[in-house]
Amino acid sequence: MTADLLAPLDLAFWNIESADHPMHLAALGVFPAGSDAAGAHAADLLASRAAAVPGLRMRIRDVWRPLTGGSLAALRRPWTGQGEPLAAALRRPLSFGGARREPDPRFDPQDHVRLHAPAPDFHAAAGRLMERPLDRSRPPWEAHVLPAQDGASFAVLFKFHHALADGLRALTLAAALMDPMDLPTPRLRPADPAHGLLPDVRRMPDLVRGALSDAGRALDIGASVARSTLDVRSSPALACESSGSRRTAGTVIDLDDVHRVRKSVGGTVNDVLIAVVAGALRRWLDERGDGSAGIAPRALIPVSRRRPRTAHPQGNRLSGYLMRLPVGEHDPLARLTTVRDAMDRNKDAGPHRGAGAVALLADHVPALGHRLGGPFVGQAARLWFDVLVTSVPLPGFGLRLGGNPLGAVFPLAPLAPGHSLAVAVSTYRGRVHYGLVADGVAVPDLDRLALALSEEVETLLTVCEP
After folding, report:
1. SS3 372
2. Which residues contact residue 258 at a Cβ distance below 8 angstroms, ignoring those fewer than 6 apart?
3. In terms of Cα–Cα distance, which of 203, 204, 211, 195 is closest to 77?
4. Fewest beta carbons less than 10 Å away: which of 12, 165, 234, 424?
5. pLDDT at 1
6. Helix, strand, or coil here: 192?
7. What is the CATH classification number for the domain harbouring 388?
8. How many distinct structural domains can be found in the chain?
9. Does 123 share its domain with 249?
């Protein structure tokens, strides 16, 4: 693989990282074990297979000089004319202060795959491992194998820096280390059209209009962000000064139960899953004594801008929706209706405008601006939203490692500065997996919130019965 300049949003993730707020996403996979040696065998397999996955050999290196000659040729990518502002295409050679992915000539999989001592609790071990930033001098990923004390199972915690991979890319890299089950017949991928490095001059009027549209979009986003900070009704439990510690927890619910609720009251599966989060937060806040009356925290819901099966394999392509979770609403069906209506409004507006689309502004910032402003942008997350609720895609087919089927997988999102909680959700083989990451000091009762998610599903099923 050749060197590849980081896209603006990837560069933002690379630069907002701090010791207390590492910017890696993760997944905790749990496997039933056929023997006490299953964990050690899995670690050996991961290390041997990692050497053959080109994406896992890529490190991230700073760029502190203009790119010319051979280095520019190595980084050259065709300008597609779609989805990328003209300014961004022309800015690639002016990459001073940026960063790039490049193959690590000293790559050793043993530096990235670790076999740990038997763990009494997978989530407790994962929380401690989530605290540790990835080594920025190496390809920024790790796989931690955690055998269970009773030998009946083992877990693997995959960590990927957000600048190396978004959720979809991380899935692709992790799946390349495992074996598929019930693999569907692949569809042919359409060929990418040929494009030159610079835009066709015949399209300049369209490009000018696109640039003006980008400017208008930026103004809309900025105004929406300003409005979103007014009348904020969040809970102190969702904000904290960072302790640098982490806890993780998870719960699994039946996807059929989610479909029963959806068919009864309408909306989408995603609407139901977000409403479950709102109801669980209500239970949790009331039980811990913080109270839920009048609470409507702002939830950031990332939206992928990738085009299926044709998107560039690397680089974050994200926008987002911002909505107020109806935590203060006591009626579970009213909560679901509020979520459904809010999501419908977001979809009507589209993922390119509104306060949730702040990530799109990264395209308009030069590389040096990301480097100098990264720490300030990270600290602004608390002003922008109160809790992250993100969906991480998983394959429709099963996966196995060393003959052991993947039984459960909990997605884990990075925790933004000033926030005490992040929620991620994935669907795998007919079950929905919620993964929770929290500040270890601010949220000592994270397991109770995980239980509240399951309880909220039961409540919705009850109220939806004929």
Report:
1. helix
2. 269, 272, 273, 432, 457
3. 195
4. 234
5. 56
6. coil
7. 3.30.559.30
8. 2
9. no
